[in-house]
Amino acid sequence: MNVVKRVDAKGVSCPMPLVKTKKAIDELASGQVLEVQTTDKGAKNDLAAWAKVSGHKLVEMKEENGVLTFWIEKA
Asked: Which CDD domains does the record cross-reference, listed alphabetically (predicted)?
């Protein structure tokens, strides 16, 4: 997976992971992949729902050692 940009949203709570993700994805071209890392458990539902509604593709999500990592492909 060719990650173009990374967002570190660890240690911040809702809605900041989503706010940071929205800002970062606006800087990408269509088809590019954004990696987001957060410790906010609510982001699991928030980012998945936002990606779906906004037309982006949630490529993968994993949880390891309390950190959620998302890979989102810009529409």
From this structure: SirA_YedF_YeeD
